[in-house]
Design goal:
By secondary structure, this protein is α/β, with parallel strands linked by helices. The protein contains 15 helices and 21 strands. Strands 1, 2, 3, 4, 5, 6, 7, 18 and 19 form a 9-stranded mixed sheet that branches. Strands 8-17-9-10-13 form a 5-stranded parallel sheet, with helices on one face.
Length: 511
Amino acid sequence: MRKIQEEAPERLTAQGAVHDVIIIGAGFSGICAGYHLLKRGCSNFVILEQEDGVGGTWFKNRYPGAACDVPSHFYCFSFSPNPDWSHVYSPQPEIQAYLEKCVQDFNLATHIRLNTTVSSLTFDEDTGLWTVQAEEGQHSTLRAKHVVVGSGGLNTPSVPVFPGLDEFQGEAFHTANWQSDIPLADKNTVVIGSAASAVQAVPELAKVARKLTMFQRTPNYIIPRDDRAYLDKEREKFRHSPLKLRMQRFKFYLRFEYVLSPLFKKNSWIRNRIEKKVKRYIRQSINDPELAQKLVPTYELGCKRILISDDFFPALNRENVEVNTDGIDRIEKDAVIDGCGRRIEADVIVLATGFDLHKQMISIEMIGRNGVSLNARWEKEASAYKGCMVDGFPNVYFVTGPNTGVGSTSVVHMIEAQMHFIMQCIDLAADQKLIEPTNAAVQADNQKTQKDLENTVWAGSCHSWYKDENGRIHTLYPHAARRFRKERRRLRRQDFLITQRKKNRETADVT
């Protein structure tokens, strides 16, 4: 980073200021990138955030019951532990507050530009700079030597087509676009979806609804969360003992790494035992045997995301809650008609239908060398070297790109490992150079990843958001977190093409 920090804070081209780094997104990834840049002495960067606040996923997802399914002490930055989490699994407002505090603690506020949606990135081969087209009331053009894409995957809601939804006269919205100003008390509420968001929202909605009907397409494996509030004396010890705080985090890391991670291997000896226990737990948790049978999955444990909850099954036992597994035929102005023709009255429809990860990957038009579109390339097959870089797109880094997702650990832990890799690349290229993986390295890395994924339960026959429409797993990393980190600890110089940026064309006479 030495060469970058020696430059003036902003160098000008004839078309405007040139940033050393532009970061897209002010969630965990963007904040982590900003922290590491400042730590290296680089202050000439900007973080572009499309929302009117920081937090990314945790700013957008404010539905009742929203919380993380990773223990809080492991769902925060290792360089900024929080001794004051209220619960083992803290709710959305606390995670949001934690990220806002990180922005203040790391002095990042002046680097963040809110309400700024990035629409395109274009590489200029004459200057070796990236042009970032953004929208902030009016179109704005920025330029950068490096671009870090930290916009995450849980940003583009997936909304299936339901005939008649446009004619519905009540309130209808996705959990990621929660309408907190709409009263829900004593309303007939229909929740479409039964996975992660629904498992968290349904217990809270059921408390106030006149009648709540949840449409389930596929049952999920749901295990106890075993959440609890931390005692005051526990938080006091965390505040005064950095070692105890680190050990709490390390305990959760070990649990995920050596207990949960092995479950996802195709020939896991322990998975069948746990699968039977989970099915027994589901049957014992539901009062109605017929309903219980509908809630028991028929696919392998882990093939789809494993969910955790302490209050979901008790909510389904309430008299005002019904689970409908007959599908949706159409939606009328004041009701949902199920697949058997039964009419379910509805004042409110909540779409708990998840996110479209592939659509999010190609949400920003990106044009690299020789006018090649990354969107067109990823439309066929989304792949990247270490899930982070693509040949033909120098000095662009994806924090949570293809095959960096996790099914068995904290994504924040993975973000930190990926950021270590990215910062090495930025340090190496610095002010004068362009760095990108070779095509051979991208192909070899992707082939190895896909081959290793064949040895996981995720490659099973069940349908999940882990796969694209062709059945290829484009989201998850096939190994444990320790291997992910090890693979990114040092750059393999032979896997990269490093060229000189045409600096003599970078600056121009500005009058």
